[in-house]
Design brief:
This protein is an alpha/beta fold. The protein contains three helices and eleven strands. The model has no long low-confidence stretch (mean pLDDT about 95).
Length: about 180
């Protein structure tokens, strides 16, 4: 079993990332930041994360995308703005397929989201600091994905690390094998 924490769009809110690192680093196998940290890539705090550039990080030394392998799952990490995620998921799905990703993590929209499309788990953790959409009242969210050979489990948490049980989702990895 592998656990991956995914966060995005803190927009300079350093304190929340410090809290996540302090509270979660020992509990997960990997921490991912999907961009718009507005913190330089060389900052020691950001070394705790696999990280990418958001549309507000263009000058901070981040790559636009990263591909990582953890727990037997290939994960594509991006912010999403280069793929137009605010209007369509198709370009990002095509990018995920071209890399062989099983999980695609992105941000940009500030709205939490998890689904399986074309055999890939697509996850947007929402914005930890400036949430939008249906779950904005939670005050900011991040996601923890648990990977097993059979399943992806997605749990969303608020800024105080309280799990949101109504947002719990489970997706079979078997679906990918049949695509």
């Amino acid at each position: 079993m592998t656990k991956v924490l995914i966060v995005s769009d803190n927009h300079g809110d350093r304190a929340i990332l410090e809290r996540l690192v302090a509270g979660w680093k020992a509990k997960v196998d990997l921490m991912i930041h999907c961009g718009d940290s507005e913190i330089p890539s060389q900052d020691p705090l950001m070394q705790s994360f696999v990280r990418v550039a958001g549309n507000n990080d263009w000058h901070l030394g981040y790559a636009p995308d990263q591909l990582v392998l953890v727990g037997g799952a290939r994960i594509l990490v991006t912010h999403g703005h280069h793929y137009g995620v605010g209007s369509s998921m198709t370009p990002l799905m095509l990018k995920g397929e071209s890399t062989g990703a099983e999980i695609v993590c992105f941000g940009h929209t500030h709205q939490l989201f998890a689904t399986v499309e074309r055999g890939m788990l697509m996850v947007n953790p929402g914005s930890i600091s400036l949430p939008r959409g249906q779950f904005a009242a939670l005050g900011g969210t991040f996601a923890v994905v648990t990977v097993t050979p059979q399943m992806f489990t997605v749990d969303f948490y608020d800024r105080d690390s309280h799990r949101q049980p109504k947002l719990h989702q489970e997706f079979s990895r078997e679906e990918r094998a049949h695509d």
